[in-house]
Design goal:
54% helix; 5 helices; 120 residues
Amino acid sequence: PNLLSRSITPVQRQIIEDSQLDVLDAALTLRTGAAYTPVQLTAMRSTYFPVLGDKPAAIAAKKQRLETLLEGAYIASGRATPARVSAPNVPPPPQTNLNKDFGIPAVNAPKFLGFENANR
C-alpha cells in the first residue's frame, strides 16, 4: 500500500489490516516453512479475510479456509504450543446479580460520568 492511501485509512482499519497480515505471516510461515514478502501477504489477504462485497457463502468459505490454515499452523508448531491456543473461545457463564440475590437496592450510576448503559 502506498503512503497516501495509508494516511487516509482510519486507524481502526489500519490495526485490522496489520493484524490480518501478522496472522497470515505467522500461520503461512509455520504451515509451509517459507518466508513471504509483504506484497505476497497483501495479495493473499483477500483469500482468507472478507472484503467489501463478499456474499455470505464466500465469507463462510474464507472463514473455513482461515481455520484450516490456522489448524495446519498449530499442528506444524509441535508440542510446544499450549492446547488452549486452538481451543474454541467459550464465553464465561453469566454472572448472577448479587445485589438482587441479597435484596440490595440498585444504585443508579450518574449518566454524566459515561455510565449511560450501566443502569439496568
